[in-house]
Amino acid sequence: MTNPFRRPLLPGVDHVSLAAAQAEGIADFTGLPASLRILAEDALRHGELDAAAAIAARSATATVRFCPARILMQDSSGVPVLADLAALRDAAADPASVEPAIPVDLVVDHSVEVDRHGTPDAAEANLAIEFRRNAERYRFLRWAEGAFRQLRVVPPGVGICHQVNLETLAQGVVLRDGLAFPDTMLGTDSHSTMVNALGVFGWGVGGIEALAAMLGRAVTLRVPRVLGLRLSGRLGAVVTATDLALTLTETLRRHGVVGKIVEFDGPGLDALSLADRATIANMAPEYGATMGFFPVDDETLRYLRLTGRPAAQVALVEAYAKAQGLWRADDTRQFDETLGFDLGSVEACMAGPSRPTERRRLSEVPASLPAPRTPPEGAGLRDGDVVLAAITSCTNTANPAAMLRAGLLARAARRRGLVAKPWVKASLSPGSRVVTDYLAEAGLLDDLATLGFALAGHGCMSCMGNSGPLDPAIEQEIRAGELNVAAVLSGNRNFEGRVHPLCRLAYLASPPLVVAYALAGTLRLDLTREPLGHDAKGRPVMLSELWPDDATLAEAERGLRPALYQARAADTFTGPPAWQRLAAPVGARFPWDPASTFLRPPPFATGPVAAPQLLAEVTGARILALLGDDVTTDHISPVSRIPPESEAAAFLLAQGTPAGDLQSYSARRVNHAVMARGSFANIRLRNRLVPGREGGFTRSLPGGETTTIHAAASGYAAAGVPMVIVAGRNYGAGSARDWAAKGTRILGVRAVIAESFERIHRANLVAMGVLPLAFPPGVNQETLGLTGDEVVDLSGLPGALHPGGTVRARFRDDARCLEVALLCRIETAEEAEDLRRGGILPRIAA
């Protein structure tokens, strides 16, 4: 059936016109934010006129459906999604019926580690180690490439998914069968918002949500609230996009934008390059927004040309944006709320020691460290020393100005005879090969390598915790002295235990500041007034002496040209010879190996774990963990290397895995037996049931013996005792990690009771059939005086499973019984049905 609002756009190209729908009286889209105009177009194109009208009316209660044009995944989260897809094929009479309905791109970027560093062959060596460790997982991906028609895999060694998406994969506007429509997407990584800088509508979701969307299920959501952030002024001469992003992260998190879209507006946009905008958009999960959206303007087109997009595609983006009212239009959008921000107010800064929101001016960094202790006699290290310095992450390596500044600062430092301190493990891991190309052409790759920042690979690496080992002597000294040492990285997250288990402190910084702190070797210095080193003649060297000025940077930027991007884009899907040589199975069904310790058939679609667990009231539940504020998905489901003393390691060793080949939780994500033992196993987790002890431990009640969370959960499950988790604010912050919800479900947890939830993890819990419950305002575990020893009853189920529903909770022990009404954090009727059916996967498999 022809859409009644389909109109010509360009010769041979049509579009579904918002203007035509408005002229027909469907809705008045005048003044609607650009982000919501895209959502309204999606509704119109799919014939949902009432939804389009609700979006235009900004209805706070309306539920609308969104059908993304494509899915983006990285391997850490994407391999489990493909395994779930393979499991659905196993359950289907016709396996070919289980096929993605929309295009899916998976970028292999989360598996490479910094095993080798500081040598000319480091990148090549790390890639070879990556293939050896992950051969079984990569053969599975090669099978999936052949088994699913709509799947493309970007092989290892190419770059980071969000940077590859920004530079190569994103189209801005999609053209299919003569119809143009917005390039929209969902990504299985929270920082998928980076592409919002191009005016692409999309955000991060859990793998289960992505799987449902790729199989054709629309995403249901309430009409989002939109905050307009009106920018003015321009950044100062020594201020980077990283400084701006960290400042906005602090500002917006304090303001409160969880679940909202932040749309950027105002004349200050003229002073921000597309790459600067991408740095800001990338950090949306850290400031809590669903998206950090930038409308299309001339800078968008300039970037598309720079990165080698065809002229016809650039023309299509411009024509479509202008026809649909998506073109930037300062001060004409009607936002739900507005906030002004002066770019000139931003100062050079870092964020740490454990949260992206902990912004510190450089002069404030020393005071943010724990109180210094007197080092043991003869000690080489002290509290506050930097042992890891990593130029890493798409957040900043996709920004040529930031990377060139780092190289230019390295050149200036090299000329003064400076090198990284010997206790610093320095590394360079850009998010695309283009970065390496333009740094090499400018001679800056050599300058960085001379200072210790030799190329280590192209992938996430230190940003997601694949920092590799430190020097054994350094590790021994840290452990012996229980030192508070630090990592400084140009990444987007610095949660406890994420970057390296021995780095209790981690600070986010711009690439040039990463170089500076590697030279200083410590965070105890105030680099605004103290030297970061001394040259060969003993003269102090100040950071301000090394910092490249704007003219020097502009000269270096002249080397950026479309041919660099086009050359790399041409072989995006080719891969290194090791990838091409991989022998993969063929066929519609994957041949699971029962002896594998990496790939086991997932249990979430069928079987006991898939059974609904909220069809009756919950009585006599035990609190498995009593947690505080800001518990992240890294705490719930770590991605780090599996510690040899952990329960997961004991399981693998019993299966015959060599002690030196335990690898990471991330690599073992399709082995649910390992991941169950890794759930809530972060070495920095603090469970108030075991005060004074860090790690994945709890007390098993009523006896009270201390044991691992997995062992306690297994005991409760065997005895038929239900379980809940109780937590504070911002539960589930961090990565879009569906295993944080899968692990919660596989342990047998029925509900998580918290003061507030981060958006993605709340949705992931629902997708796994676990009920998120919120304390009412002013009530929390402290006001109730909970100790974790209480027995918990949840009454009102399953009738309360609907948006706005309440569950009556009783917390009781021998001395008292407390009652409180908890809010079901269910957003839509679709989510309620998912909970009744045991989650999305059982519902799909039924």
Automatic annotation (TrEMBL):
<keyword id="KW-0004">4Fe-4S</keyword>
<protein>
    <recommendedName>
        <fullName>Aconitate hydratase</fullName>
        <ecNumber>4.2.1.3</ecNumber>
    </recommendedName>
</protein>
<keyword id="KW-0479">Metal-binding</keyword>
<dbReference type="InterPro" id="IPR000573">
    <property type="entry name" value="AconitaseA/IPMdHydase_ssu_swvl"/>
</dbReference>
<dbReference type="InterPro" id="IPR001030">
    <property type="entry name" value="Acoase/IPM_deHydtase_lsu_aba"/>
</dbReference>
<comment type="pathway">
    <text>Carbohydrate metabolism; tricarboxylic acid cycle; isocitrate from oxaloacetate: step 2/2.</text>
</comment>
<feature type="region of interest" description="Disordered">
    <location>
        <begin position="351"/>
        <end position="380"/>
    </location>
</feature>
<dbReference type="InterPro" id="IPR006249">
    <property type="entry name" value="Aconitase/IRP2"/>
</dbReference>
<dbReference type="Pfam" id="PF00330">
    <property type="entry name" value="Aconitase"/>
</dbReference>
<comment type="similarity">
    <text>Belongs to the aconitase/IPM isomerase family.</text>
</comment>
<keyword id="KW-0456">Lyase</keyword>
<feature type="domain" description="Aconitase/3-isopropylmalate dehydratase large subunit alpha/beta/alpha">
    <location>
        <begin position="62"/>
        <end position="521"/>
    </location>
</feature>
<dbReference type="InterPro" id="IPR015931">
    <property type="entry name" value="Acnase/IPM_dHydase_lsu_aba_1/3"/>
</dbReference>
<dbReference type="GO" id="GO:0046872">
    <property type="term" value="F:metal ion binding"/>
</dbReference>
<dbReference type="Pfam" id="PF00694">
    <property type="entry name" value="Aconitase_C"/>
</dbReference>
<comment type="function">
    <text>Catalyzes the isomerization of citrate to isocitrate via cis-aconitate.</text>
</comment>
<feature type="domain" description="Aconitase A/isopropylmalate dehydratase small subunit swivel">
    <location>
        <begin position="650"/>
        <end position="776"/>
    </location>
</feature>
<dbReference type="InterPro" id="IPR018136">
    <property type="entry name" value="Aconitase_4Fe-4S_BS"/>
</dbReference>
<dbReference type="GO" id="GO:0003994">
    <property type="term" value="F:aconitate hydratase activity"/>
</dbReference>
<keyword id="KW-0411">Iron-sulfur</keyword>
<dbReference type="GO" id="GO:0006099">
    <property type="term" value="P:tricarboxylic acid cycle"/>
</dbReference>
<keyword id="KW-0408">Iron</keyword>
<dbReference type="InterPro" id="IPR036008">
    <property type="entry name" value="Aconitase_4Fe-4S_dom"/>
</dbReference>
<dbReference type="GO" id="GO:0051539">
    <property type="term" value="F:4 iron, 4 sulfur cluster binding"/>
</dbReference>
<dbReference type="InterPro" id="IPR015928">
    <property type="entry name" value="Aconitase/3IPM_dehydase_swvl"/>
</dbReference>
